[in-house]
Amino acid sequence: MKPMKIIVLIFLVLVSYTCWGQFTALNKYYRQGERTVFNDVIINDDSLTILGDIFHPDSLNLRNVCVFRTDTNGVISKIKVLYDPMGLSPNLISENVKLTQTLDGGFIFTSGPFTNPSSFFLFKLSYNFDIDFVKEIELGKCNVYDIKVLEVENSYFIGLDVCTQNGNDHDYCIVKTDLQGNKLWHKFYGTEDNYEWLRNIKSFKYGEVTLLGNQSINNQGRVAITTIDTSGMVVKEIFNMGDGEGNIYDIDTLDNGEYIYICSQLKDIVDYNSSLRIYRINSQGEVIWKKVINDDVFNAYLYRMHRNANGTYTIIGKEEGKGRSLCITQDGEVLWQHIYKLPFSPMPIQYYSGLLGMTALPSGNIIACGYFRDLTDLKDEEQGWLVKLDADGCIDKNCKTLLGDQEVIEIDELKVGVYPNPSNGLLKVNIPYGQNMDDCMIKIYDIVGNVILNKKLFEGVNDIDLGKDVTSGVLIYNVSSDSGKSLKSGKLIIKK
Questions:
Q1: Helix (H) or strand (E) holding 451
Q2: Which residues have C-beta within 8 Å of that of residue 192, sequence separation ≥ 6?
Q3: Residue 447: predicted pLDDT
Q4: What is the rounded average pLDDT of the residues 102-116?
Q5: Which of 114, 226, 234, 462 is deepest in the core (most CB within 10 A)?
Q6: Which residue, 127, 133, 124, 129, is CA-closest to 105?
Q7: 48-62: string of b/e by CB count within 10 Å (b at 16+)?
Q8: How many CA atoms lie within 13 A of 424 on its CB side?
């Protein structure tokens, strides 16, 4: 090796070591009571404020809204459980609910009521988690799902997903209050006898609020981006029919008036498979580019995006029971992507996890939060999940970064699916098309190694019935190719 190449190699090694020396890993799990979920996180100087809920057996309805304070290494310094004015336990109905920091340094958010589905609670906290006010706001004959609150022009604008009780319509609603939480007005947005779902609200321009939703018009899905003024009047609407688009969760606007947004299209309501997509559109809604990140994957959503200092976007969500992330340029080039497999779970399909909220540290690293759900040994426990992503999306020194458009797939799994898990004895086994795996076999064993099922599988979805003699407990399964190569294996939890 030439001397100059040796010097360059040493330099790169030193740079890599130095970067990791400056990067303090954070990958922690939290359980308060029986279950914990982290919905959103905000950075404040050298601390994090996290909104979530806990499940506790001493609670009347088992769910309590909670706020947490940690340092940037995830060490908890403060926890506050919140109650409504009657002393009951409100809860976060939607996993998409967001935490907003107010101009006075406090926090505001919504929660679902304990007894009245046609109303919601508006919580305002100080920075130290003292309750400034909690107001119950009634909307009439509908079921309310909480989303997000914005502070705009000395008022609070509250975005809500609303289902009418007649079952013929589904709209979204904006509520405006003063800074003391007193309702000034509320307005519904949508079309009669069609379905509209609100996913997020944002403010890009003084005096305006942008509503992100998806609509079903004559059984055709489309993304709807609606901008209103502070009186609730519609200023602008942009629609993208795409190819059945829906579930737009976040958006950013560029200096030239164009938009970049993330969306997840539910493609199969039976197997719950989705397509993950990112769009750049002009101010009239015309598509400049579309990026399909992954197509037809189980339980996949892109929830949040953050514009980095260099103009790229870090995006988080979930896919096939795991947290996922990626980084994309404004021109649609994917720089890296990850699916985070939990280190203490050697078997597949033992857990479900996802990343729901995120914030950026002054260093540029990303703090993301979400949940981890353990399904092993007949458990069904959720833990809050807090993780730090470096500039390449890595969460530890052993992280493997997938560059560009490399497909995110675990080779040992080959997208073979065995679900649901836990199961009542009725299973589906998916063998993907086009993989030359037409003569696969599945064997299922009890815990002492006795074979209780040995069946041939074909491409597509195979239905499996373990029979009435199978009782609750833990089984072991293995899906193999015609050559005997193991394609997927793990524990199967039976609950009857």
A1: strand 451-457
A2: 169
A3: 78
A4: 86
A5: 226
A6: 127
A7: bbbbbbbbbeebeeb
A8: 1
Strand boundaries in 299-361, DSSP class E? 301-307, 313-319, 322-328, 334-340, 351-360
As a whole number, mean pLDDT of residues 349-367 equals: 86
- Do you find a cis peptide bond into 343, omega within 30 degrees of 0? no
Strands 100-101 and 107-111: antiparallel
Claim to verify: residue 343 and residue 426 sit in the same structural domain: no
- How many Cβ atoms sit within 10 Å of the Cβ of residue 458? 12
Going by C-alpha positions, the residue among 43, 100, 91 that lies closest to residue 66 is 91
Q: Is the peptide bond before 362 cis (omega within 30 degrees of 0)?
A: no
Return the bridge partners of 276, or none.
264, 294
What phi and psi, each to the nearest 5 degrees, are found at residue 138?
A: -95, 140
- Report how far residue 30's alpha carbon sits from residue 32's, in angstroms, rounded to the nearest whole number: 7
Strand order in the sheet with 381-389: 27-30, 381-389, 366-374, 351-360
Answer yes or no: is pLDDT of 15 > 70. Answer: no
Same domain, yes or no: 425 and 376: no
Tell me the whole-structure pTM to 2 decimals: 0.74
Helix (H) or strand (E) holding 21: helix 3-22
pLDDT for 464 beyond 80: yes
Residue 225 to residue 215: CA distance in whole angstroms: 10
Calculate what percentage of the chain has a pLDDT beyond 70: 77
> What digits encode the pLDDT tens for the residues 374-421?
665 545 577 899 999 998 888 876 665 554 444 433 323 346 778 787
Owner of token pair 């914990």: 36
Question: What pLDDT is recorded for position 88?
Answer: 67
Last residue of a domain, one of 378, 403, 428: 403
Secondary structure of residue 277 in the 3-state scheme: strand
Mean pLDDT, the chain, integer: 80
Pairing state between β 426-431 and 460-465: antiparallel
Which CATH number does the domain housing residue 486 bear? 2.60.40.1930
When divided into structural domains, the chain yields a total of 2
Q: Residue 220's domain spans which residues? A: 27-403
Q: Is the pLDDT of residue 81 over 80?
A: yes
How confident is the model at residue 269, as a pLDDT? 55
